[in-house]
Amino acid sequence: MKNKQFAVIGIGRFGESLVKELTRLGYEVMAIDIDEEKINDTVDIATHAVQADSMDEDTLKALGIRNFDVVIVAIGNNIQSNILTTIMLKELGVNKVVAKAQNALHGKVLEKIGADLVIYPERDMAIKLARSLVSNNFLEQINLSPTHSVMEFFTPVTLADKSLVETGLRKKMGVTVLAIRRNDDVIVAPGPEERLRKGDVIVALGSNDDLEYITNLD
What we know:
- With 218 residues, the protein is of the alpha/beta class.
- The chain has 2 domains: 5-119, NAD(P)-binding Rossmann-like Domain (Rossmann fold, 3-Layer(aba) Sandwich); 124-215, Regulator of K+ conductance, C-terminal domain (Alpha-Beta Plaits, 2-Layer Sandwich).
- It has helices spanning 13-24, 36-42, 57-62, 79-91, 104-112, 121-134, 164-167, 169-173, 208-215, and strands at 5-9, 28-33, 48-51, 70-73, 97-100, 117-119, 138-143, 148-154, 176-182, 185-188, 201-207.
- The strands form 2 sheets. A 6-stranded parallel sheet has the order 3-2-1-4-5-6, sandwiched between helices. The chain has a 5-stranded antiparallel sheet with strand order 7-8-11-9-10.
- The longest helix has 14 residues, at 121-134.
- It starts with a strand and ends with a helix.
- The model has no long low-confidence stretch (mean pLDDT 91).
């Protein structure tokens, strides 16, 4: 199986961070931006760094953009360019287009024109920061939909020394514990009699409201 290839269009702070992380993870990444200075900054980071206008169809074709597994439109300071680039990528047959949105209205437009995934980096980071500030237990969150997530959090004190069935997480809230990380061990799909311990890290799936309620328990 071939390694996934990514293209990141728009090398601002978000785009550059994305290029760095994907490259660090061992993937081939092409960085594209109309600004020569930004491209020069990524020459030593990306697999390929190209100065190009993403709204030029012939240029995108010449770059073989449709051959990339995922193309991320990370343009953040020009909504028109962001939207038109997304449209062009879909018209060129790119398999998966991920587009960065500035706000809800922008996101709705991106969804309407065919973006496969719309992301809100600033909003999501603000939510994550807010939750980490108000909760002593919250660690990480992966959004599966607008209403459901997989969340990682420390065992609240009120749940420590109780078995999963005794906590009522699944029966009362519909929250499923996928795994428990205990020191260097990971208990995958723990049974109902598994007892939670203080310091355990719980990985659970459920509605955002229920998960947030649990992480805020004392």
